[in-house]
């Protein structure tokens, strides 16, 4: 689980870093321009890291399924070698998927306007600016959504169907609570993440609403990366023990100084 959490942290830092530094620079300098090369680079890495997080959350759901439904075989199914291969596959797939999107965007003609009604280069705002035929890229977006987002969501859903079924069959209340607590953080992350993704991208371009999209994008870019560490660390017993010792040491030091 710690292997997945390290990668989740890296992804959160990565896709936030593709947007926030440029946004902060624009706010500080009041120079609200971005070159075409920077814009398409931002699109590529943002889609990449979003896809990687979708796949990684599905892998983490499978990890919880094995841990709760097949605990005696966990060390076999989720060995370090298998986890490394799974994580490597997630990163490779996530980095390859947006290549086609980026190439299509780079070859579009942007003749309507060069003003992006957003705080970063996102798919839908760019589609609203181009005079080129967007049918291909929209179809490609829905294909990606079906192949990656939908399949990852279905895998996550199936995993939790088996997890909940196993938890309900546990006889003791304390056992059920312990089993559920091991996956409650992941469930919360999945609900928030998929809620914002579906609200932003799983709809036609004609239904684009700049104000609504900016709101959900802020949740996606800033809130989720902030919540993920809190959701996982606050439920972690090792972190709780260290945090309690740190508080006791602070109180003791303060008492000694006074």
Q: How much of the polypeptide forms β-strand, as a percent range? A: under 5%
Shape: globular
| CATH level 4 superfamily | Rhodopsin 7-helix transmembrane proteins
Helix content: over 70%
The major sheet is characterized as: none
Describe this structure in words.
By secondary structure, this protein is mainly alpha-helical. The protein has a single domain (2-257), classed as Rhopdopsin 7-helix transmembrane proteins, CATH 1.20.1070.10. The chain is built from 11 helices and no strands. It has helices at residues 2-17, 20-29, 36-69, 74-77, 80-96, 99-106, 123-129, 135-168, 173-201, 210-233, 237-257. Helix 3 runs antiparallel to helix 5 and helix 3 packs parallel to helix 8. The two termini are 43 Å apart.
Summarize this structure as a short list of keywords or feature phrases.
258 residues; Rhopdopsin 7-helix transmembrane proteins
Compact summary:
With 258 residues, the protein is mostly helical.
List the helices and strands and how they pair.
Elements: H1 2-17, H2 20-29, H3 36-69, H4 74-77, H5 80-96, H6 99-106, H7 123-129, H8 135-168, H9 173-201, H10 210-233, H11 237-257
Helix pairs in contact: 1-3, 1-10, 3-5, 3-6, 3-8, 3-9, 6-8, 8-9, 9-10
């Amino acid at each position: 689980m710690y292997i997945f959490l390290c990668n989740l942290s890296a992804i959160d830092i990565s896709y936030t870093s593709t947007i926030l530094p440029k946004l902060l620079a624009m706010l500080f300098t009041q120079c609200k321009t971005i070159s075409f090369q920077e814009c398409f680079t931002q699109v590529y890495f943002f889609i990449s890291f979003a896809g990687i997080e979708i796949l990684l959350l599905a892998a983490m759901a499978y990890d919880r399924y094995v841990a709760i439904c097949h605990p005696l075989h966990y060390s076999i199914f989720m060995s370090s070698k298998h986890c490394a291969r799974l994580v490597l596959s997630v990163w490779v797939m996530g980095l390859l998927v947006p290549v086609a999107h980026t190439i299509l965007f780079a070859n579009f003609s942007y003749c309507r306007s060069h003003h992006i009604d957003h705080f970063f280069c996102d798919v839908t705002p760019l589609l609203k600016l181009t005079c080129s035929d967007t049918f291909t890229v929209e179809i490609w977006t829905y294909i990606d959504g079906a192949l990656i987002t939908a399949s990852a969501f279905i895998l996550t859903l199936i995993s939790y169907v088996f997890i909940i079924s196993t938890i309900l069959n546990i006889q003791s209340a304390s056992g059920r609570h312990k089993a559920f607590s091991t996956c409650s953080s992941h469930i919360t992350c999945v609900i928030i993440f998929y809620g914002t993704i579906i609200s932003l991208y799983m709809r036609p371009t004609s239904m684009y609403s700049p104000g609504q999209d900016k709101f959900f994008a802020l949740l996606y870019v800033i809130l989720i990366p902030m919540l993920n560490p809190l959701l996982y660390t606050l439920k972690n017993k090792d972190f709780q023990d260290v945090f309690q010792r740190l508080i006791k040491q602070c109180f003791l030091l303060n008492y000694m100084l006074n």
